[in-house]
Every structure is written in C-alpha cells, then in structure tokens.
Amino acid sequence: MANNVFNSIVGTALADGYGVLGLNVFDELTLRTAVEAAESQGASLIVQTSVKTVKAIGAKRLSDQFKLATSLSLTPVALHLDHCPDRAVISECIREGWDSVLFDASSLPLHIATAQTKEVVEEAHAQGVNVEGEIEGIQGVEDGIGSDDVPLLYPIETVIDFIETTRIDCFAPAIGNAHGLYKQVPQLDVQRVRDIVAATNIPMALHGGSGLSSEQFSELIAAGCAKVNISTALKKTYIEGFRSYLTEHTSASEPLTVIEHVRQNVRRIVVDYIHEFGSSKVIST
C-alpha cells in the first residue's frame, strides 16, 4: 500500500468512523472553493477529477491548479482521478502528481480486470500513488463513463480475492447505488459493505452519493464507506447558482459579483456535506 495523503485521509476516516467528502470538481472555481470550505471546517477533503475534466483542462494544468489551491491549506487534501478505464490517462495522472486513481475495470472480464488492476497497482505504488478498484459497474452514466444497465455483482468471496490479489487500497462496491439522480429511493445493501470491510480491512468508496438520505449516509459510513463521492449535486448547485442570479438580476453586468454568488452556493453545499459525513473538526460554541 502506498503511504500518501490519500491513504492517510481514508485510513483515518475508516478507523474513526466518519466519511470524507470526495468531490468531483470541474474548474478552478469549484476546486478553490471546495478547498477553502473544507479548511474552514477543519476537515480533510478528496478533490476528484473525471477523465472528461482531465482531458478538457489538461493533466498538468489541473495538477498545477490543485497545487496552487492547496499550497496554504492546513488540512489534508488529496487529488483523485475518478472512474478511469483508460490506462494512458491513469499513467499520465500518476506522472503529474495525483495522489490516487480509480481504475474502472468493470467492463472487463474478471480475469482481465484482475490482471490489469494488478498492473495499475504496481505502477502506481512505485510512485507512491494509491489505487481504488472497481469490477462491478455502478449503475448510471457520469461524464460519459458508465451504463444504465443493472451491474453484474460478484460473490463476496470473489470480491475479497480480487482485493487481496491486486492489493488495491480502496474498493468501490456495487450495492444498489447509482450515478446521477435517483428515480426512486434506492435499496442499498449495507451488509455487503460490512462483509467486505470485515474481510479486507480496507476502506470502501461510496459512489452515487448525490440524493441519498442522512440515514443512508450514516449507516454506510458506519459500515466502512470512508470516502463518499458527490458529483451531480455540485453540478446542479453550480448551474442553478448562475441561473438563479441572472434570472433575478437581468441587468447584471459585473462577472465577479455573479461568480461570488455561485461560490457562496458551492461553499454551502461543501460545508453541508462535510457536516453530514461527520468529518468536520470545528467545534460549535
């Protein structure tokens, strides 16, 4: 296991029973605002980037933006590559300083997924980078990756063998969760999370966090979901921030005023999730 900031963040969260926000940012505004919001709460944070975002901004430029945004941060912040089936992008992000990568092998036959994930782990660990593994697709499409088909679930024993064989640092289980907006209240298999954590002692990553209830978050975090991913909720907040302001202020002509309005909305949702997941170290007086 690579011992870096990502490992420290999720390892501590698993041991202490809280969840760390894994937030999918997509520009400098959301990146900087999220880091500042987390620091204001004394909370650790995992900044996540999709393959689409990496390709749109560029890996080096994105890495530079992250370094600048976190250079003065007093709380731990990790940079994570979300759902990536592309080995070339994985390698590029490892070279450019990501702290962890999710190699999404859910579309591959199990034996190939295991062999390739093991190769990614060896490459990443050699550079001090952690690896999140996935062999069971999370339902829904996010940033052009994924499927709306019901995912194949492997027996618990198969999942445990995959984790032990590949030596991944974190696992993304399929438990009835989905990317995007839930059309109905999801029935989540919390016991599956408990069983995998009990057998492997590695943190689980909860995907499809946008739209889950406080009770579901609480139960899943207690079961071992030390990393909780949020993407759709941030996108909605960002878009609605611009839309609502410009609807109410039709003659607005100062971009910085509009941007500050959006920043405050983004900050609010980040702080709310940090408190929801129990990772804030700020004590209210």
UniProtKB/TrEMBL annotation:
Cofactor(s) for this UniProt protein: Zn(2+)
A matching Pfam family: F_bP_aldolase
Upper lineage: Bacteria, Bacillati, Actinomycetota, Actinomycetes, Mycobacteriales
Phosphoprotein is among the record's keywords: no
Annotated binding of Zn(2+) 2, by residue: D104, E134
Protein name: D-tagatose-1,6-bisphosphate aldolase subunit GatY
List of residues binding Zn(2+) 1: H83, H179, H207
Cofactor remark from the record: Binds 2 Zn(2+) ions per subunit. One is catalytic and the other provides a structural contribution.
InterPro entries the UniProt entry points to: Aldolase_TIM, Class_II_FBP_aldolase, FBA_II
Active site: D82
GO MF annotations in UniProt: tagatose-bisphosphate aldolase activity; zinc ion binding
Parts of the chain that traverse the membrane: none
